[in-house]
What we know:
Elements: E1 15-17, E2 21-22, E3 26-31, H1 37-50, E4 66-71, H2 76-85, E5 93-97, H3 108-118, E6 123-129, H4 131-134, H5 143-160, E7 165-171, H6 184-188, E8 192-199, E9 202-209, E10 212-221, E11 228-230, H7 235-238, H8 244-254, E12 258-259, H9 260-269, H10 278-288, E13 292-296, E14 302-306
Helix pairs in contact: 3-5, 8-9, 8-10
Amino acid sequence: MLLEHLEDAPEHDRFRIEQVMPSESNTLIVAQRKAGKTTVCLNLARSLLLGVPFLDAFPVQQATGTVAFINLELSPAMLRSWASGMGIPGNRLVTVNARGLGNPLETQQRRSQLADQLREYQVEAVIVDPFSVAFPGEDANNSTEVRRWLSDIEEMARGDLGISDLIITAHAGWNADRRARGASALEDWPDSIIRLGLAGNSRTFSATGRDVSVQETSMGFDHRTRVLRLTRESPTRLGSTPSIDPHIVEVVRSSPGISTSAIGAAMRTRGVNFRNGDENRALRRLVEAGVLRVTIGSKGSKLYHPVD
């Protein structure tokens, strides 16, 4: 236990990521299936390491050390490819790739071995992805087991490594409230909870917690770099003209590489009613939501493709 007078405590900025993640905090990222959990984690690491605003919206306190990413889900090659495409410095993102190789967080001995390996890298933040694989207990719905394991992880991260920020990801359940699967202790643990969801064709972001409150907002996705940004549009606004979007997706899937004008012509042939300009706005929405991607044709025209 560490005792100190309040007036003697060192001064820190209140937030590591403004409005989203307090300094020296625990953060839980809860994501619906295919909502971009690992991509958001890498975007968060990118912001911490480069000092660029998170999601192009929230200022960060840049890390001077490294970020450790304990990867229990993706292949090492895929994680490296995604991180490289985002421009994350390879010498500052320390990856622990353990998919299929045993859980490095399972026992006290393995956690100590991991801490020994990471200590030389001056780790400031640890990301664990995901809880469902990292948790070694018999029952993820048992609050006592989950609480004990979270305490053990904190002891390793803060006690052995002296890190500032601990981030754990979890899959959301099937209920409408998008709570994390497993024991209630998992959502009782963090200072901040980031929720990632799907609303129609849009990926959404929100955050709640101690001094944290970000309303649900849609995210745009750059397919070339995998960098995310807030679109500043609410999911309800994005869904205000839902009837045209499925038709556009159907047209593009049937004719990959189709131009904007050809999409409009195809929809009119199919008897879809819309006003001039609606197709352009819908295409922008679908590209930002990660449903479609765009390339540039030989004459500079935009060509649209489905995202598989």
